[in-house]
Sequence to fold (773 residues):
Amino acid sequence: MTERFQYDNRIVKNFLFITILWGVVGMLVGLIAALQLVVPGLNFSEWSTFGRIRPLHTNAVIFAFVGNAIFTGAYYSLQRLLKARMYSDLLSRIHFWGWQLIIVAAAVTLPLGMTQGKEYAELEWPIDIAIAFVWIVFGINMFGTILKRRERHLYVAIWFYIGTWVTVAMLHIVNSIAIPVTLGKSYSWYAGVQDALVQWWYGHNAVAFFLTTPFLGLMYYFLPKAANRPVYSYKLSIIHFWSLIFIYIWAGPHHLLYSALPEWAQSLGVAFSVMLIAPSWGGMLNGLLTLRGAWDRVREDPVLKFFVVAVTCYGMATLEGPLLSVKSINAIAHYTDWIVAHVHIGGIGWNGFLTFGMVYWLAPRLFGTKLYSTKLANVHFWLGTLGIIFYAVPLYFAGFFQSLMWQQFTPDGFLVYKNFLDTVLEIKYAYWLRAIGGSIYLIGVLIMVYNVVKTVKAGKLVADEDAEAPALEKLEKEPAGHWHTWIERRPIQMLVWSLVAVAIGGIIEMVPTFLVKSNVPTIASVKPYTPLELHGRDIYVMEGCYTCHSQMIRPFRGETERYGEYSKAGEYVYDHPFQWGSKRTGPDLHRVGGKYPNSWHYYHMWDPTSMSPGSLMPAYPHLFENAIDTTTTRRKIEAMITLGVPYGSDLPAKANADLMRQGQAIADDLKKAGIETSADRDIIALIAYLQRMGTDIKAAAVATK
Amino acid sequence: MLKFIKHHMETIAGIGIYPVVSFVIFFSIFCIALLYVWKATRRHIDHMAALPLTEGNSTNESIHHAQP
Fold:
């Protein structure tokens, strides 16, 4: 019996508009961050230094722009592939507004310096809980729709959505486990090496399951729609799905090569990362070959143009990713702008262009009209493509050459570029070109905004689109088939098996590392931070120092010459969260302790160029004004004790007295250098932390002698 | 100094099983997926591939397409 029902287009429209809005905002923030690297004066306030703006940019483009794009495409395609309206309009609205509230909360708290200090997982615990809640609402709405569907079989795009939903939920919850200190401050449950492994298991899979699998779902739906022909090989899409979700979950450790992570975990990450080429390229070719026989239309249809470049960028990024996971290539690329270029091929090429193609395809359909201007869409396409090239190519050059400079020795065996800053100044030109590339890209997006506004004005929203389909009757007898047609009819089983697939990877990868806790040869001389140093470390986290400075010296001659003894796993056992960083716009800081006098740090934080002429680092005058928040000291120490840091039980009570004593000693030392300062300023705590960093192991060396 | 980063894992009993387990799991799933697409009928695959293009006109009447 044929049933009549209506697709909910209003929710799709809402997500579409907000995707565009957050896209513009997120990219604009990215452009500001890019310009701050060449014009440090643009770090004009406490709330807008690079260290706070960069997380704002990454969170905005990943979770606001790409996130809403996923929801746009998923809400549109789910209804049509399942021949059913979304399960609940109310849940759709809660999902929409909840997600936007989270984004607004992020946009407020990140500039305020409320951060967990873990990349792409910076948001503090109350927001993390809200994310979990909204994600579950999305899940209920999606599975509710699946259960009341009128199409028996689940198309491959839906598998990708299910895989995404399950895995993101798992990643988010596991990585966000933290112990709250205040409403805006918490400490990661994990420390040091474990925290690093959990974070990059999360971080890499945020790329895999937030930026890739849902977008592959969109690709498998919108590309055939736009080309008006079925996907090249549905069989290939099945292999693509299963091998991709199985392999991706293992690849995280490739972010930690040559670090203090155990060797076996590094090798596991490399092996699975290299294997990723196969399913990724299978998917890319499947997308491109869908256009076989329709390439003439690519010349005329901007939607297809965007899709072709998006899928090509997917192919480029997923070839490059495995290559970057090879240890010898990673040794060159890690910590450099090469990685920044790599992620932007994925971000602005794959995610950006697929979204734009989807926008141009959806907007006229939702509003029952034609696209206002195909010509402008073509202009956007070419500006976007040029923007990607201008963005990425200079950074590839910069990353490669800077890495070589870091490791360049004179015939006598001395570093050619003794001063890290010299290598930065050599590549400053690339930072300018990158900002220009980003601007071109953004102009293209603004043209799209104009085009969409004009299109919307010319049409009228088809809020509820009529559709009809026969009700799904219960099968009296299972049709003989084999297991996959079985699973295609059983979404809940599908959910469970996807979860099993990704959970096994996560468990096997991490369990041994948790066992390590009792097995890492603890370095006896490594002691917990003093209360003052702990405050200093929190300031380091708050200011996002990790966005430009690493705390992980790799065992290379070029690094040990420059920074000192390479980093050991046992040195990080009290680091909640770890702060290894992933990019060196400035030098590594793991052995900065004791390298300079207190006065050097004092002047350097006031005005970096006073100590390092030409420095790109922002000044931090607010650290000189703000007093250390001693009201939280006790709770911080208690939280650390809960996490297993061996502080004496009497410390919480006397922590502030200890703090003042150590602060006074630093202030007295500064006084000898002619600096008058109060001992209770943030800068004192930060200096205490910086002077402590990486020094414990030196005590061990002295002791063994 | 090397003693600090070497030999972490040697103290965990049976650590060698982890990479083996991971390989076996992955390889078997891969084989099952391969087997499935190899055995799948043309009709079923065509039906699935056509799903995005058949909005409005349901294809449920062909529920028995999976039969060989």
